[in-house]
Write a structure and sequence with these properties.
Helix content is 36%, strand content 26%. By secondary structure, the chain is α+β, with helices and mostly antiparallel strands. Helix 7 packs across helix 11. The longest helix is centred in the C-terminal third of the chain and has 28 residues.
């Protein structure tokens, strides 16, 4: 969900946690839902609209971080002739959310779950997001159940999606999945995650796509100081992501086929953004020959190495041009593809945490059923890109400010020290202001000075690092 994953541990009274609490207040982030929203959610949780199709015999399982309770997806994998069958259940929020109701209106205001290093601010009340709508193990839940048949190479050959009642059997985390698969103890439905995931990764390379397995940054408080570490994603993270990606691509193809839908689109990155990324690679001593493509470089990186992990964090900047594109009545938009996916793609697998996914799911369900999408879906389409863009801006602000706070906390006791770095950006209309990437620790901060040498290494002095002020500043040494 967030482009960058930052987690902080430590006592609630720690200065970093206090700064994050103050940031939420400054940004006007809601700390709760109104009583009317909560009351409507409570009523909906007790009386969801359940479909007639019973698929509770499918032994689905979920794969999520160990502390997650807002479980959007559950899967079951099997062999189908010489190929595979992927069954992917997506939480059906439409079973709980009344169009135009209090919960719906609040979801349109929020658009997306916001992620802070110490907590999240959910899109829907927890009675739904972590309760009645969540695909928790042993619980009967309404879902949009995708069935996607693949050939032996992992290519899609058939797609179906319908409403169903489902029941997950097991809640797994990435480490447990990796351990079972590596140890050869995984039963076939889980063991096939590697086989199908790797097949889909090969197809991704073939079509020119690229997945960013961004490491999680962890900031740990020890003895009133902070330390930075990276948690490299496991192969299982990537295999699991490929199943979601597969479903999003299938959803996009369905919507394009009928000429009505909402796509997640991303144009090719501008040269300036790639140039900045090349300077970041230079600052972190990562060799990027000009004949090597961005995709080739990313695939060659080892996220277990701190400087590679830091670079992968900065690669998320190339995703900032992504947006939502709606179309209807057979008039396809000029851009239907997502540059990183290298194919049409739609967000449809996280409706608990992202508003647009509920609408994409409804259009796909109607398409497969041979029906027109519900009127409430069509009526909302025109405003959806704007609402999601507003949500993305809020999420982007949260991300940037959180990174600033975390980096300030990391360096708060080192003001006046010298560091090796590289100027990766200089403002066009204010050439005395730019950004510098440090070699170690791998943080980026503002730099103020005359004649900033863009793309060159230099020694810099830390002049400010205050988690309360949420800014790190440097000057040429």
């Amino acid at each position: 969900m967030p482009r960058r994953h930052i987690r902080v541990t430590g006592a609630p009274e720690a200065p970093l946690r206090a700064a994050l609490t103050a940031l939420r207040s400054e940004l006007g982030v809601p700390d709760s839902f109104s009583p009317r929203v909560e009351a409507e959610a409570e009523r909906a949780a007790k009386a969801p609209v359940l479909p007639s199709y019973d698929a509770t015999d499918i032994p689905l399982f979920t794969v999520d971080p160990p502390t997650s309770r807002d479980l959007d997806q559950a899967m079951h994998l099997s062999r189908q002739g010489t190929g595979y069958r992927v069954r992917y259940a997506i939480a059906d929020l439409a079973a709980f959310v009344t169009p135009g109701g209090e919960v719906d209106a609040e979801a349109h205001r929020r658009a997306t779950t916001l992620y802070f290093p110490d907590e999240k601010v959910p899109l829907h009340p927890e009675v739904l997001s972590e309760g009645a709508a969540s695909l928790l193990p042993g619980e009967t839940r309404p879902a949009a159940l995708w069935t996607i048949d693949l050939d032996a190479e992992g290519r899609t050959v058939a797609v179906d999606v319908r409403r169903a009642v489902v029941r997950s059997r097991a809640r797994l985390d990435y480490a447990a999945v990796q351990k079972q698969i590596d140890g050869g103890t995984a039963e076939e439905p889980l063991g096939l995650l590697k086989e199908i995931g790797e097949a889909r990764e090969r197809l991704e390379v073939e079509r020119g796509g690229i997945s960013l397995n961004v490491p999680e940054q962890e900031i740990v408080e020890r003895n009133h100081a902070y330390e930075l570490s990276f948690r490299a994603p496991l192969p299982a993270d990537g295999w699991n992501a490929q199943i979601s990606l597969l479903t999003g691509m299938a959803a996009a193809e369905l919507m394009v086929s009928v000429g009505t839908g909402v796509l997640r689109t991303l144009p090719a990155a501008p040269d300036g953004a790639v140039g900045r990324l090349r300077r970041t690679a230079h600052a972190l001593h990562i060799d990027w020959p000009h004949h090597v493509s961005y995709a080739q470089l990313v695939r060659s990186l080892d996220p277990h190495q701190p400087h590679h992990a830091a670079f992968l964090q900065e690669c998320t900047t190339l995703l900032r041009g992504a947006g939502y594109t709606v179309f209807r009545d057979g008039s396809l938009p000029e851009i239907t593809t997502h540059a990183a996916v290298a194919a049409p793609y739609a967000h449809c697998t996280a409706p608990i945490r992202r508003l647009a996914d509920r609408y994409a799911s409804e259009i796909c369900l109607a398409t497969v059923a041979g029906e027109a999408p519900p009127d409430w879906v069509l009526a909302a389409l025109a405003a959806l890109p704007h609402e999601m863009a507003d949500g993305a801006r809020r999420a982007g602000t949260v991300e940037r400010e959180c990174v600033d706070i975390v980096e300030a906390a990391l360096l708060k006791d080192r003001v006046g020290e010298l560091f090796d770095g590289c100027v990766v950006e200089v403002e066009d209309h204010k050439p005395t202001v730019g950004k510098v990437q440090l070699e170690s620790p791998a943080v980026i901060g503002r730099i103020d000075g005359e004649h900033l040498p863009l793309g060159e290494r230099l020694r810099v002095r830390l002049t400010q690092a205050d988690p309360g002020a949420a800014k790190v500043r440097f000057a040429p040494a």
